[in-house]
């Protein structure tokens, strides 16, 4: 399920109170505030259909001023085998940076698992975690990423993710 | 070494000291094309080793051990911080502007991290190029 709306205190509490009352178990979730908007994505285990759950949340969502939508979760086949990499990009902002970078990653079969972008003043920063197919030579992809960065007038690097657990 | 390098180093020290919480500054952060940085972690709460005022031209990382993840920010990226893996013990050598003497700095903890941050600047890198992942980037809460 996703919940999104103007940020204010009590959104998580108000939504999860309803879920708890329904016996719904929150499994994986990510919740974040982007500028003035709060967004939650949750995987919930519950003995109800998606539209029933959405209807149950309608009152709480309306009083919080957020939009809650529920759909059946897909069966997770597990992560495809791949080498975990981190792509970092920073430089002057312009339209199309994300489209160009992700087009390159998609073209080499890369699967994005996490991505964060921040615009602070004139500076645009993108950090993206991407799994590259095992047969893909990551040094070649790293070169292509750097070349794309040059074309976009930004600094872009791709490197293997740190594997160690802290 | 050319007198303009000494003047640049003095300007870097003045600029660093003019910014509260700033413990280091590299020449290319102020638009000067030189492999030069200044550093002074004195008085910082996290400081362990303290080598005094460090001013190095053409600096080189000689040895780096005891890697740990920590959070750092940068005067050139005022609104963001990031989780970066850095060595907690380093040996750095470089040339002292003016005298031209070689200086070797051995540092632990915060000073070691700050040295690596400045060495990155000298190589044209920001801490952003080393953040651990998409969730390792943070909005800066306070200006220390």
Question: How would you characterize the overall build of this protein?
Answer:
The complex is a heterodimer of chains A (about 170) and B (about 140). Chain A is α+β, with helices and mostly antiparallel strands and about 170 residues long. Chain A folds into two domains: about 1-70, Alpha-Beta Plaits; about 85-160, ACT domain (Alpha-Beta Plaits, 2-Layer Sandwich), CATH 3.30.70. Chain A contains four helices and eight strands; from the N terminus they run βαββαββαββαβ. The radius of gyration of chain B is 14 Å and the shape is globular. Chain B has one domain (about 5-140): Peptide Deformylase. The longest helix of chain B is centred in the first third of the chain and has 16 residues, at about 5-20. In chain B, strands 1, 2, 3, 4, 5 and 6 form a six-stranded antiparallel sheet that branches. In chain B, a hairpin with a 2-residue loop joins β3 and β4 (about 75-95). In chain B, about 20% of the residues lie in helices and about 40% in strands. Classes of the chains: A alpha+beta (about 170), B alpha+beta (about 140). The interface between A and B is medium-sized, with 19 and 19 residues.
Concise description?
The complex is a heterodimer of chains A (166) and B (144). By secondary structure, chain A is of the alpha+beta class.
Name the features.
heterodimer; A: 166 residues; alpha+beta; Alpha-Beta Plaits; 2 domains; 4-stranded antiparallel beta sheet; 4 helices; 8 strands; 31% helix; globular; B: 144 residues; Peptide Deformylase; 6-stranded antiparallel beta sheet; 6 strands; 21% helix; 40% strand
Task: Outline the biggest β-sheet of chain B.
Answer: 6 strands, antiparallel
Interface with most residues: A-B, 19 and 19 residues
Number of domains of chain A: 2
Q: Strand portion of chain A, in percent?
A: 35-45%
Order of helices and strands of chain A: EHEEHEEHEEHE
Structural class of chain A: alpha+beta
First and last CA, distance of chain A: 31 Å
Q: What would CATH call the architecture of chain B?
A: Alpha-Beta Complex
Provide a count of the helices of chain B. 2
Instruction: Provide the CATH topology of the largest domain in chain A.
Output: Alpha-Beta Plaits
CATH topology of chain B: Peptide Deformylase
Which percent band covers the strand fraction of chain B? Answer: 35-45%
Nearest-integer average pLDDT of chain B: 93
| Beta-strand segment tally of chain A | 8
Share of residues in helices of chain A: 25-40%
Rg value of chain B:
14 Å
Nearest-integer average pLDDT of chain A: 94
